[in-house]
Amino acid sequence: MDIKQKIEKANEEAVRRLTSGDPVLVDVAPAGEVIPGLENKMITHSGPPIEWGRMCGAQQGAIIGMVIYEGWAEGPEEARAKLEKGEIRLEPNHHHHAVGPMAGTISPSAPVWVVENRAFGNRAFCRQVEGRQQFGEFSKDALDGLRLWRDIWAPTLREALQKMGGLELNPIIIQALQMGDELHNRHSASSSLFANRMAIAISEADVLKERALPTLQYLAGHNLLFLGLAMACGKAITDPVMDIEYSTIVTAMARNGTDFGIRVSGLGDEWFTAPAPVVDGLFLPGYSADDAGFDMGDSAIAETVGWGAFTIGGAPGILTLVGGTPEEALEYTREMRKITSATHPTYRMPALGFAGTSVGIDIRKVVQTNVSPIIDTAIAHKDPGYPIIGAGLVRAPIECFKQALIAFSQKYNT
Amino acid sequence: MDIKQKIEKANEEAVRRLTSGDPVLVDVAPAGEVIPGLENKMITHSGPPIEWGRMCGAQQGAIIGMVIYEGWAEGPEEARAKLEKGEIRLEPNHHHHAVGPMAGTISPSAPVWVVENRAFGNRAFCRQVEGRQQFGEFSKDALDGLRLWRDIWAPTLREALQKMGGLELNPIIIQALQMGDELHNRHSASSSLFANRMAIAISEADVLKERALPTLQYLAGHNLLFLGLAMACGKAITDPVMDIEYSTIVTAMARNGTDFGIRVSGLGDEWFTAPAPVVDGLFLPGYSADDAGFDMGDSAIAETVGWGAFTIGGAPGILTLVGGTPEEALEYTREMRKITSATHPTYRMPALGFAGTSVGIDIRKVVQTNVSPIIDTAIAHKDPGYPIIGAGLVRAPIECFKQALIAFSQKYNT
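The joint structure predicted for all components is written out below.
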């Protein structure tokens, strides 16, 4: 086989794995109990590796929040001092089979979604989705949302899941894609369908009403609830795609608000980074582009598996959030076919005649076509201490793909 | 004012009423308790008035089913004999502020959705949605579904609703239209959202688990559940539009499988009928167009208020059921603007750039443009005794609109 054939064969295997993922929600458990290598006095974060001093304002704010939440500091000044002295270890989620939206911070006592990919036996983890602490806010109110998750909602879900023995997520994903979700910033359908299933499970598990009722209210009232599940699914689906020799398929896109990084199957766990770009978006009242930090979050794992902006043509409901017209949204989705290797056999979009979602971003195609993956995403403030300020669209920096292609050429002598 | 001005003014008022409906689910109650004039030994049916002998096979089958269900006969032969002798009174749902999908049969002990239009104080009613008895099947299995509704599901919903004091339905309708429902044959989103609201209400009402759990399972497992609610909403919204002098706006489209009938605001409760047309559709395995009955059901109340095929462009997920392409669906929705008077201020379709749904079918515009309202609908068998056999698209017969326009000219000397 010549090199081109070896690449094609490797990418076929990558796509086979990408399209045969079978994600099952098996637990909602404290991170320290389930995430390998997540130790005491450690916080994991979104994006490629980064030290405290280079972190953007929102990620610093979110980490300060987690330090207070864990009781490792009384207030922000003490937290900041400890972080500056290196007393809290900071590592990327992606180095622990985990992902987190926006700042992405995970600390040991915070419960995470645990998703098992039953086709390959691996597990992945994602933190709770909310609109404040993960955006950099560390007020008592912001942290109280984390405490309710830890003390009420997550334990109730855990109890119900244990009774039901896990919940297959592909049926929800397949349906939600036919109901206008793109599974990155629009989760109205998936969250609602998930809440339906959990309401039955909570009833079956005879959870005490004092915990059952607030959990049902939380589930039915949180229209981005499923984002955490979708991200854990994305990570669970992509992890088995890592380390296929000769494959040029992207296995991760992640941003920490300072750097944008990608990983490529045939290049193992190496990160190829470029400065995190500006998001072109719409802002909540009181905020503008001047307030915005740069692109942030592990949530681009959604686009890595073909959701998010890759399927935005099937999700026009999201346009009030991120801007643009239905026609532009359809065009983005069609454009992504140019840089991907296959269409998914069961994840389908009615608005595109039930075409499969585009999967398997090929770094060669990105560089050859000069078409960069498009991502829809929320926007955090540039400074610590704020909740969500907006949402929009952004392109992955093409430099990451060029660097990766050069590294690929060097490794495989192409 | 000349006649044209009088018509315009009347139609403005009709549209004002059509677009200001505020439907609230207030009860799920035995029909005989709540539907005015529904007496013992009476069954109401879909479509314009029709006697037993002219009824189509599916409607006869459904009525036989209800006679057995009520215990007025032991089996189909006895039921048929009583019906032929006129011992059971048959009247249209529409004459009782009620609607029913397909055969539409309502009998006194069958619980119905009770929707109050809080903007006008009127109430409307719709029967349970299921895929067997209302299509003409009268087997024990088919009737057992009605019994579970009567004995378990409906009483549980009633108990929960009484505790919560009613549920506003516009928030669900608005959201569902942004999630790919068209609210006639696709109710995936509305049913799921409704199920979550009721799960909370059932928990709050402390319903016994032996009834709560099967009801939660019923709610979460029935993706056409909301059709009955949407139809009751449609009827509750259109009833206040009846009897506006000079208005040419359609207030009902309904079919009994033999006749297709419409009512017009300025023409009161008169029906204008033509033979029910053939539905152009897709069939379930084992059935074909040769088996199909003609167009049937009160469910075209959905199109009367601007849902169903009028919004099918925003609901491409339905196309696996009824056939066609996303582009054709968008074109149907745009075409309906030609025969309607306004767009709805809050019922919006993301796929059409968040345009409002088209409301207020004007019989003048239908006749002038020769564009007839399009309806998406399920298909019943031509003979009694069968469940659902397919679904598709159909045009309202233009003769109904021509007759109505002639009657209008005669009444108002135009």
